[in-house]
Amino acid sequence: MIRRNRAPRYSAAALLWRGARNDSWPRVWRDPALKKSYDVVVVGGGVHGLATAYYLAANHGIKNVAVLDKAYLGSGGSGRNTAIVRSNYLTPEGVAFYDRSLDLYNTMSADLNLNVMFSERGHLTLAHTDSAVRTMRWRAEVNKLQNIDSSVIGPDEIKKIAPSLDTSPNTRYPILAALYHPPGGTIRHDAVVWAYARAADAYGVDMHQKTEVVDVVCEGGDGPDGKGPGAKVTGVRTSKGDISTPVVINCTAGWASLIAAMAGIQLPITTHPLQAAVTEPVKVFLPTVVVSGSLHVYVSQTDRGELVFGASVDPFATYDMRGTLDFTEELAGHVLELMPAVSQMRLLRQWAGLCDITPDYSPVMGFTPVEGFLCDVGWGTYGFKAGPVSGEQMAKCVADQATPDLISPFALSRFDDGVLVGEKGAAAVGH
Amino acid sequence: MLLVPCPHCGPRNSADMSYRGEASSRPDPASTTPAQWRDYLYMEHNPAGWLRENWYCSSGCRRFFTVERHTVTSEFREPPLPGSKTALPLSKTAEAGAGTDQQGGEK
Hints:
The complex is a heterodimer. Chain A has helices at residues 12-21, 47-60, 92-106, 108-112, 130-145, 155-161, 189-202, 256-262, 325-338, 387-400, 414-417, 424-427; strands at residues 40-43, 65-68, 84-85, 123-127, 151-153, 177-181, 185-186, 206-208, 213-219, 232-238, 241-244, 247-250, 270-279, 289-292, 297-301, 307-313, 347-357, 364-367, 373-377. By secondary structure, chain A is an alpha/beta fold. Chain A has 2 domains: 32-114 and 189-269 and 360-427, 3-Layer(bba) Sandwich (FAD/NAD(P)-binding domain); 123-183 and 271-355, D-Amino Acid Oxidase, subunit A, domain 2 (D-Amino Acid Oxidase, Chain A, domain 2). By secondary structure, chain B is of the alpha+beta class. The model of chain B is unreliable at 91-107 (pLDDT under 50). Chain B has a single domain, classed as Folate-binding superfamily (Folate-binding fold), CATH 3.30.2270.10. The interface between A and B is medium-sized, with 22 and 28 residues.
C-alpha cells in the first residue's frame, strides 16, 4: 500500500539478510533542515500529528508537510498513555468514530509495515453500583445498534474471563456486572508513533524534532497583531526560524490552549495530569483489560508481564507532571479491592501525562474562527485510541476544505450551538 | 499533593478541598449576548503560569476562597486586592483578610 522511496521494507527475509551480513539498519526517518515554506504545518509530533501528516501525503497527495515537535516524536501523551484501544462508547457519534479507529489499528501493522503488537484481548468495564449497571446496559445497546461486539455479563462470566478478579459479594464494592467488549485490547504505543513517522517520512514529510512553535502569524483578525476570529494564518515562528504556511493544525495535548492562544483562539479546555504506574513483571495471569469507573482504576498486563495501571485525572488544572503519593495510595487500595492476590507485587515507577479536558469529554476537531488554523485537541484521556481516525479525518478536512461527517459533531462551534456530545459516562475515567 | 492555603484553616491537602476552576465574573443574564454567555460557561484561559482560581474548603470551613496559583511550579499567592495592581505574598494573608471575597463568582 505504501510506496517507499527510502526506508527498506521490514520483513523476516530482511532481518535474516541483515543479520547474516551483520549489517546495520539505516536511520528510519530523516532529520531535514527547516524549509522556508510548507503547504501544511502540523504542531505536535505524536500519534495525532504524525497520522495527520501521513494521511495528508498518502490519501490526498499533500506531501509538502512539516511536523513540528518541541521535544522528540511521541514524547507527550503518545508515549505516556496506557495503550488501551476500544470503541464501546456511549454516544452514537463517539461509537462510529472510535470504531473507525479500531479498524485502522487492526490493519496498521500490514498497512504501515511495522509490527504495532496489537493484542485484541478483550475489554471489561466493571459495574459496582445499580446506576453503573444501567450505564453499561445503555452503552451495550448503543453499541449493538452500530454492530459493535459489546454485551453486559454477570459475575460468573467475569470470573471465567478474568479469574484473578474478586467477584465475591463480600467486598466493599461488589462487582455486579461488566460491559464486555472483545475487540478492545492493547497496542504498543511507541510502535504506532514510529510506524506513522516512518511511513510519513517515506512520502517526503519533514519531521522537525526539538523545534518549538513560539508564535502563529496571522493577519486581518480583530485581536492584537491581526489575530483572533476572522484572521488568516500566514505562518509560524519556531525556535529554529520562521515558516510561511497557509494551514496550521494544532495536534498538541497539554499545550493545546497555549498554541490556540497564539492564533487568538480560546478553547473550552483545562489541562490536568493523568498519572499511571507500572509494576515489576510477573507471569501472565490477567488476560483482558479491566476497567472500573467506580474504583477509578484500569489495569492491563503487558507482554513483558508488568501490570500497567491508570486512574482518573488529578482533580485540579495544572501543567505540573510530578507524581503524587495520594495517587499511588489510592490506586494501590483500589487495585487490591479488585485483585487481592497482587498485594505482594512491587510498583516499579509512576509517571504522568497531560490531558486536555473539555466540558463534555469529547474532543475539539476541525476548523476554527481563524482561517487556516485547525484544531485536533481536547483529547482528554482517550486520545491514543482515536489517533488513526483523527489523522485520517483531519487530513480529509484539510484536503477537501470541508468538515467530514465523522468529525462534524466535534466541531468547536458546538459550544456556540449548544450541541454537546456528552461522553462522560464512557470516558470520565481515563483508559 | 498540593498544599492549598485556606485563609481560615491554613494550608491543607488539596484532597480536603474541592477545586472550582478559573475565577471569572458572571455576566448579567439580562444583557449578555449568547457569545458572552458561551464564553462564561465553557471557555477557559488555561494558562501555563499564574491562574486566578476558586477553591471550596469542603472538609474544613466550608467556605469559598480565591487564590492565584502558578500552574507550572504549583506556587500559591494571594490575588490582588480590588484596586491594587500587585499580588500579595501569602504571609500577608491574615493582615489583609482578603481571602474570603468571592468577587470572581463561582464557576
